UniProtKB/TrEMBL annotation:
Active-site residues, as the UniProt record annotates them: D153
Primary subcellular site in the record, as a coarse category: cytoplasm
Keyword Nucleus: no
Subcellular compartments: Cytoplasm
Protein name (database record): Epoxyqueuosine reductase
Quaternary structure note: Monomer.
Transmembrane segments annotated in the record for this chain: none
Amino acid sequence: MPPALPAYNAHMPASAAIDYATLARDIKQWARELGFADAGISGVALGEDEQHLERWLADGHHGEMDYMARHGAKRARPAELEPGTQRVISVRMDYVPPGTRNAWEVIHDGGAGYVARYALGRDYHKLMRNRLQKLAERIHGAVGDFGYRAYVDSAPVLEKALARNAGLGWIGKHTVLINRRAGSYFFLGELYTDLPLPVDEPASAHCGSCARCIEICPTQAILGPYRLDARRCISYLTIELRGSIPEELRAPMGNRIFGCDDCQLVCPWNKFAQDAAEPDFAPRHSLDGAKLVELFAWSEDEFLKRTEGMAIRRTGYEGWLRNIAVALGNAPKSAAVRDALNARAGHPSPVVREHVAWALARQAD
């Protein structure tokens, strides 16, 4: 654990005198006051989830995401990742702001680029880590020194399993966490702590016989309930994969240029999805439905400037052009699309050139 924060009050109660049940209730209230939609507390036992992870890795379904295997068992053993951890405080934050263009409308507009709804505004990582730090400071103000560490996709953490055990939702057949009162459009974060807080009841599953998420997947990446082959997932292909996108998967990608939401869009539980309360998640540069030709014309400087502080930066400029080239290949045929592609036909990147050539061939058919 990192060094605890300096004591605010020299007369803090001794650990033995702490009412942990009251503290747990207070933590959840403080989390909501800090902008989190919900919070829950779990223990650190993740045995079944560790076995599921091991099978997934053994099947090679993580593709080029070597970091998924790099830390071994620590991903499923919080007390080994951070010695002394007894409990994990999980939080969630809704991310789709009001007024965002309808997702299906964009997907069915072949001239527009679809960006996953979570990535339209400010990158959530730093924002949520800062809020978790403030939550830790509130806890410290109540109990004095304690061990903790905040995580938001910043370490090998089985965040969905921990959130499920904390009562924040169940892991759906598409492997995304679902909350009965809020659907699945939310981010997760964790505060590992050495405080022996009472734990919450794990969430029960409510997918039933529904298989809409499996049936809708454009690239058939969901092999069956709870079995995702990331190598076929559009989110992986457009964000994590470096190099060429397998040719047989390009046409099914449609106009999805950064991530994919189809499995969530068809989920019945998302009729309960809540609008984001965080104004920084509002779409920037009209990315909730911007035209592909316009996005493809961005220079590298423009890309870096316009995506500053956004998750879209993760794909890099080369990946950005590669993804848009695929979408242009899938777009309705037009002179404007062909002109845009021809303007990039001699791009220095062989990856970009390859995908532009593929797209031009599609436009010429």
